Structure formats: C-alpha cells, structure tokens
Amino acid sequence: MRSTGTGQDETGTEAGSEQRSIQSVVIGFRLIAALEAAGGPAPLKELAAAAGMPPSRAHAYLASLRAVGLVTQDGDGGRYDLGPRALSLGLAALGRLDVRDAALDAMRRFRDETGESVHLSVWSGQSPVIVARLDGRRNVSLAIRLGFALPLDRSASGRVFLAFLPEAEATEAGRNMRPAIEAARRSGIAITDGLLNAGFAAISVPVFNHAGDLAAALTTLGAAGHLDIAPDGRTAAQLRLAGQAASAALGYGLGRGQPAAR
C-alpha cells in the first residue's frame, strides 16, 4: 500500500487510529474533570451532561476508567466517583512539588509589599537550613547565607520547627522551651528580638505540605526598632499570608491535612 507522504497510508488507518487514541484520552479526561468538579459521587447522566456527550458514550468511557482504577462505581448502575488510582496520581504529583519553587512567588509578594527581606528554611534532620532568600529594600548589614544552619532555640525559624515538628524530632532545647513553643503553636507565629544576633529581630511562620506536615519556615529579619514585630502588626499579617500561600502551593488543604497534634 502506497504512502501518501503525510505519515499515513491511502486509507489513513495508522494516522487515523493515532488520532482516535488521542481523542479518547481527551474525552476520558473530560469525564474525570466532571467528577472532580462534582465534589462527590455523581450519576451517569450528570457526568455525561457536564462532559458534553450522550450517556451511552460516557458509560463506555467510564467503564474503561473503572478498569484502570481511575473511577469507581457504587454497585450496578450506581453513582461514579474518583478511584484510588486518581488519588495516588494526585498524591504523587503533590509529593514532587519542590518547597523552594512553591514558596518563591509568596516570598516575592511579601518582599514587594513590605520591603522586608525574607528567607526560607527547611529541616536538615538536626536544624533548619536556609535554602532561599530575597533581600528587602532596606540595607540589612547582617548577611543571610544560603546553607546556614539556624539554632533551634535562638532563632524564630528554629522555634517554628520546634513547635510543628513531630514530638520525636524534638530536642532537649525544645523540652526546655515549652512555654515559647506552645505560644508559637497556638498563634502560628514565632518572634525573636536580639536572641540570635544583637540588634536584630525576626518573625517566622510555618509552611505546610499537602499532608499537613511542616515543610519549611518563612522568616523575615530586620533591624530591631525598624522591623515591626507586633504579632498583630502589618508585617506579621503579611508574613502569615505568605506562609498560607506557600502552603497552598504545596497542596495544603487539598487533602484536608492538618498539622499533626503534639
């Protein structure tokens, strides 16, 4: 059989089959998207209407999606819902989100709106380590180095980790700072003034991942007397919003995960 020069034979069978396969993926995803938008189990007719196809066609596609675990059905002729395979794919995608990339937009907004510097720290196994920073408009003489390990007891970032890490991760320093840690846990914010570096103050908030576990701490640092460290002040409020935005970018709230109780 002769080639037409367009990547298919005279009947168009190969290219036509490929095109049908691509269309099948698109149509199948329309049904998955309809299930997602439904917010819970939904009947065939409702899903078919949302996906813009006859119920008979939707039924055939849903049967294939059931076969691979992307969709479940409650008994014969019952409602459809997202299946375990859809959940595992979603969790796999969330688990691959990089905390630094997820937090950068929130960090930029905080810096642009307040003019203050901000840095992100993650848990190294023993202490928080700075992995990203953005300088503010003010010239802060204290250098914030990437890779710097922050002390748990004398830094605002450290106190956030002591407050929200599992109990098994706590150190003797944490056990000796119960009141401060409990206050940080209740308020969702840690503030230090001159503890780590004389003449400098810091505010830190937690960043949670999709499972509700602590993923990082967002911290702003500035000269004492210039940085507004009031817990209900504008800077603290903006930092809380940044922490919430970074958490949302990591999927926090999608799986209804909440910080683990201590």
From TrEMBL:
Q: Which residues form the IclR-ED domain?
A: 85-252
Q: Which GO terms describe its biological process?
A: negative regulation of DNA-templated transcription
Please indicate which superkingdom the organism of origin belongs to: Bacteria
Q: Which UniProt keywords apply?
A: DNA-binding, Transcription, Transcription regulation
Question: Mind telling me which InterPro entries this protein's record contains?
Answer: GAF-like_dom_sf, HTH_MetabolicPath_Reg, Tscrpt_reg_IclR_C, Tscrpt_reg_IclR_N, WH-like_DNA-bd_sf, WH_DNA-bd_sf
Question: What GO molecular functions are on record for this protein?
Answer: DNA binding; DNA-binding transcription factor activity
User: Domain HTH iclR-type spans what residues?
Assistant: 22-84
Gene3D superfamilies, alphabetically?
3.30.450.40, Winged helix-like DNA-binding domain superfamily/Winged helix DNA-binding domain
Q: Which SMART domains match?
A: HTH_ICLR (SM00346)
The protein here is known as: IclR family transcriptional regulator
